[in-house]
Amino acid sequence: MFEQRIAEQTGISPKQVFNTLELLATGATVPFISRYRKEATGSLDEVQVAEIRDLNHKFEELEKRRKFILESIEEQGKLTDDLKSQIEKAGELSELEDLYLPYKPKKKTRATIARSKGLEPLAKMLMAQRPFDIEAKAAEFLSKEKGVETLDDALAGARDIIAEWVNENPRVRASVRKLFLQNGMIKSGVVKAKEEEGVKYKTYFEWEEKALKSPSHRVLAMFRGEKEGFLRIKIEPGIEEALGRIDLVILKAENETTEHLQMAIDDSYKRLIAPSMENEIRSMIKEKADEAAIKVFAENLRQLLLAAPLGPKNILAIDPGFRTGCKVVVLDRQGNLKHNETIYSHPPQRETKQAINKISSLVDAYKIEAIAIGNGTAGRETENMIRRIKFKQDVMAVMVNESGASVYSASAIAREEFPEYDVTVRGAVSIGRRLMDPLAELVKIDPKSIGVGQYQHDVNQAALQQSLTDTVESCVNMVGVELNTASKELLKYVSGLGPVLAQNIIDYRKEKGAFKSRKELKKVKRFGEKAFEQSAGFLRIRNAKNPLDNTAVHPESYHIVEKMAKAMQTDITGLIRYDEVREKIKPEKFVTEEAGLPTLKDILRELEKPGRDPREDFDVFEFDQDVNSIDDLKPGMKLPGIVTNITAFGAFVDVGVHQDGLIHLSQMANAFVSDPNEYVRINEKVVVKVLDVDIERKRIQLSLKDVD
């Protein structure tokens, strides 16, 4: 294991790292470790545990590469003790690859062709940099059979070999790499005759900045423009300084060999070293940009998944539309579909009166408590119609972000849930369920389709998937899952489960009925002790015989709670019900080898609010009723809005006009802002000021300044 190296890189103690790696090696999940093994890890949070896991994987891959390189060079019979020592000490992949480069099996190159013509001895003489009659010596290598017909042929071939040696010199590569890192400039220009077609990349038609200081969104934008054929990208430092650094390593004397060595150095840099270093820096800044974009995406996703739920209500959900009408569905408090139909309340088939009557009758018949309205096409128009209806009872109307609903409605999950209904019904159901519980519904959709990312299709997809999976798992396990009502999609994200055990739980429920206790999980097919250990604390059973089964207290700690109850001369229900009883408990008296103060304090907090939902309470939001389209916007207006997306350069806000506006970083506060997440969150209700409206380009500039 690599606990020492990980500790140095993270600032976490080697003991904490070692214990975390030990737990991960036994199959423990990140949520389980951070929640139930605080004594072992020193209360590391999920982010720290995941960082240890990822660094360990990185070092494992580095060691695999090191082993391969050693074996490869040894098979060639070229592994000296000194070279072996250098390879074993190399701490970075770039160091390893530099050392391996001279021994890496090569395809046909100019240098290998020159060697096949017998020119390597001449190259060695030039490289030795001792004076000799170059033309006379070169003449000895002339051979029509080998294709060396002139002195220029012989010397050019020798220089090709030297150029490869220069490229393979670890000191040269380290020095030039350092220069690229310090002074490398990323330059972008427009591809000839693509100016009009690539106008969206106009900012980058003539752009130049330090490569390593270029922010994530600019790097990804430039690389996307290059991929689409509109931009040319180049990364380079000053060529003269680069050549000067190589000269310092290679040139040892000044005589008749110098001219040829200088020619070889120039060729080596332009043809071999510079492209290689540019590729390295490209990969480096791309990886850095990917990490930043993925971090933004993951944080946005977390905030969206943890949005306040309305909770179990009778819901009427509407997926608005003009030409095709509005699809209306009715859901009961468990999210079951009870009714569906289509109404036509907007042009071209305006039947507003019939639509209003139908909505009113459905609200009365199904005792509707809330109306969910999709925020897409015709959303504001539908909301305005709903707000004109005089219902017999209080009914809240809520605009719901419908991003990804169409993806869900056409998915295998939706077809399995509603095989007899078409995509329009499924989409409306998804909108209604999102209002009840965003987390439970959004886990059914590929996170990349939810619409809160930045360049999500341009970043490393494996890294993105790992981060998004971690985020969903974190949110699901933080909130907890009701065992008897959760869908397979929600259950599969519970620590220790996965799709197979999630399906087995569903099958067991169908056959045996609702679970009465957590212990009953052990009767589920393939549900072993490890799965029980990892998952039980995150699963809830409402109205269970043992009240602890509806809390985050892990079954492995039930005996501790029983001891606490006994010491307080009450039962578990009494501990939960009476604050004054819990306040008398001194946790240090219940410390064991397995459960220390961190676990005991967690238990007491959970008993205070058993099974509490950590998400915020639902808050009804309304757009300005006088603003319905971008044409209604005027600079200076102050409007309520909802944050829909956060990027590295600002945040997007929905003010109810079918086009989100941008709050640039510079408009977030009267101070320098580096991270928008410090000022806004996804789904946060804000008041913004309209700065500028470009109707033709559909761009809205907003500000958080001076809105009080």
Structure, explained:
This protein is of the alpha/beta class and 708 residues long. Among the domains are: 3-85, Orthogonal Bundle (Arc Repressor Mutant, subunit A); 106-168, no CATH class; 315-436, Nucleotidyltransferase, domain 5 (2-Layer Sandwich); 490-608, Orthogonal Bundle (DNA polymerase, domain 1); 630-703, Nucleic acid-binding proteins (OB fold (Dihydrolipoamide Acetyltransferase, E2P)). It has 29 helices and 15 strands. It has a 5-stranded mixed sheet with strand order 6-5-4-7-8, sandwiched between helices. A hairpin with a 2-residue loop joins β11 (638-647) and β12. It starts with a helix and ends in a 5-residue tail after the last strand. The model has no long low-confidence stretch (mean pLDDT 92).
Mean pLDDT: 92
CATH fold descriptor of the domain at 315-436: Nucleotidyltransferase, domain 5
Number of strands: 15
Number of helices: 29
CATH superfamily (homologous) name of the domain at 315-436: YqgF/RNase H-like domain
As a whole number of angstroms, the C-alpha radius of gyration is: 33 Å
Chart the SSEs and their pairings.
Layout: H1 3-10, H2 14-25, H3 30-36, H4 38-41, H5 46-75, H6 81-89, H7 93-100, H8 110-116, H9 120-128, H10 134-139, H11 151-168, H12 170-183, E1 185-190, E2 206-210, H13 216-227, E3 231-236, H14 239-250, H15 258-305, E4 315-319, E5 326-331, E6 337-343, H16 352-365, E7 370-374, H17 379-388, E8 396-400, H18 405-409, H19 412-417, H20 423-436, H21 438-442, H22 461-479, E9 481-482, H23 488-491, H24 499-512, H25 529-535, E10 539-540, H26 558-567, H27 572-577, H28 579-583, H29 597-608, E11 638-647, E12 650-654, E13 661-664, E14 685-694, E15 699-703
Parallel strand pairs: 4-7, 7-8, 9-10, 13-15
Antiparallel strand pairs: 1-2, 1-3, 4-5, 5-6, 11-12, 11-14, 12-13, 14-15
